């Protein structure tokens, strides 16, 4: 089939305003090039040029950037199709108007996509978990959660990402661009948004709450990962123990246990850990930094989880309920100990007289004050 080069439109992904600003920023910031798109007669978009990871400044490529300039406003673009699309704003304006909110667009195609914001229509559905999206491009990105695909790779260190924007931010580590540093623990980030999310670990703020179980998270990403457990779909299976997982990321973390891989090493004592989060908690013991502070009483904690447990003292929350008698507890450990009243379990035994106890605290008290053999 013969292809015709037409004014390029990124369907289901960017509005014309976004493309204009994206292209302008691309020239200013020297980041990543967009691929050429050509549309055949059946309206199927074909990518004929792969994305380039670096600009001419970063790789030495001599191809001129910003060579397509608008004669009316001076704005520059990396590809002719973007300029052609931009020129419509000058020659035709934005004649297509949304009847519901008054927003205007260059052509009807953009309007049709925009209308889904008002109708709530999500025609693109994931066949693995049933989640739906307004745009086909969003579904394509979502599928990477199930496939584990990370198509955007850093050519300097080999780290890969699911999203192009994440690679762009990562590149700042190599280019030496300004980093954003946490004033409480000194950790640095390539994006201010990441720093803002990180600060929630210090404050204990968890604004994203699961509507099904009430569990809260510091970011929308963590909430989305959690919500996979409610779908009941666990399509990722471990070939070593038959355990199944809701996401490829969870499976990869689990496989480290079988492989004995502990890539996260403590800089203080050399101890290794399977998970980065476990290492971070461990290192806080060495550093003595208690960066998680309770704003009610000023007490500080090593981890956000410890802070969360402590805050229940102030809120009165008792999320752990006994299935036998209905009594509630602030901590899971308290519920476990309480259940021994119903089960009769007494796991702590005195090595001197053989008497058993439900808690280690009762055993210690017995040994120091009441054990007949020890008191002799």
From TrEMBL:
Keyword line: DNA-binding, Metal-binding, Nucleus, Repeat, Transcription, Transcription regulation, Zinc, Zinc-finger
Record localization: Nucleus
Record SUPFAM superfamilies: beta-beta-alpha zinc fingers
Keyword check for RNA-binding: no
Keyword DNA-binding: yes
Principal localisation: nucleus
SMART domains in the record: ZnF_C2H2
GO function term, MF aspect, one: zinc ion binding
TM region(s), chain numbering: none
InterPro entries: Znf_C2H2_sf, Znf_C2H2_type
Residue ranges annotated for the C2H2-type domain, each copy included: 68-95, 96-123, 124-151, 152-179, 180-207, 208-235, 236-263, 264-291, 292-319, 320-347, 348-370
Pfam families with a match to the protein in the record: zf-C2H2
Record GO cellular component, one term: chromatin
Family designation: Belongs to the krueppel C2H2-type zinc-finger protein family.
Function in brief: May be involved in transcriptional regulation.
Protein name, entry field: C2H2-type domain-containing protein
Source organism (scientific name): Cyprinus carpio carpio
Lineage of the species this protein comes from: Eukaryota, Metazoa, Chordata, Craniata, Vertebrata
């Amino acid at each position: 089939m013969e292809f015709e080069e037409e004014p390029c439109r990124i369907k289901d992904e960017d509005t014309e305003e976004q493309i204009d600003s994206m292209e302008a920023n691309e020239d200013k910031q020297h980041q990543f090039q967009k691929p050429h798109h050509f549309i055949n007669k059946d309206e199927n978009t074909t990518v004929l040029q792969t994305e380039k990871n670096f600009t001419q400044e970063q790789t030495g490529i001599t191809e001129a950037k910003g060579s397509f300039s608008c004669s009316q406003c001076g704005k520059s673009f990396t590809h002719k199709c973007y300029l052609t699309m931009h020129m419509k704003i000058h020659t035709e304006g934005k004649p297509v108007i949304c009847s519901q909110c008054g927003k205007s667009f260059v052509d009807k195609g953009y309007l049709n996509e925009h209308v889904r914001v008002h109708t709530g229509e999500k025609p693109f559905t994931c066949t693995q978990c049933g989640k739906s999206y307004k745009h086909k491009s969003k579904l394509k990105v979502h599928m990477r959660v199930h496939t584990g695909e990370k198509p955007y790779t850093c050519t300097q260190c080999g780290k890969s990402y699911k999203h192009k924007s994440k690679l762009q931010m990562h590149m700042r580590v190599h280019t030496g661009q300004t980093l954003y540093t946490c004033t409480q623990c000194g950790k640095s980030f390539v994006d201010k948004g990441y720093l803002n999310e990180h600060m929630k670990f210090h404050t204990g703020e968890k604004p994203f709450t699961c509507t099904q179980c009430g569990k809260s998270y510091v970011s929308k990403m963590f909430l989305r990962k959690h919500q996979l457990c409610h779908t009941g779909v666990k399509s990722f299976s471990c070939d070593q123990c038959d355990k199944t997982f809701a996401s490829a990321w969870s499976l990869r973390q689990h496989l480290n246990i079988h492989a004995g891989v502990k890539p996260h090493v403590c800089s203080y004592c050399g101890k290794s850990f399977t998970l980065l989060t476990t290492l971070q908690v461990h290192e806080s013991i060495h550093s003595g930094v208690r960066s998680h502070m309770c704003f009610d009483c000023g007490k500080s904690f090593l981890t956000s989880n410890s802070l969360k447990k402590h805050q229940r003292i102030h809120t009165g929350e008792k999320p752990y309920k006994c299935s036998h008698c209905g009594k509630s507890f602030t901590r899971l450990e308290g519920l476990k100990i309480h259940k021994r009243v119903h089960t009769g379990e007494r796991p702590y035994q005195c090595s001197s007289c053989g008497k058993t106890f439900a808690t280690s605290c009762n055993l210690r008290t017995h040994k120091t004050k009441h054990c007949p053999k020890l008191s002799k």
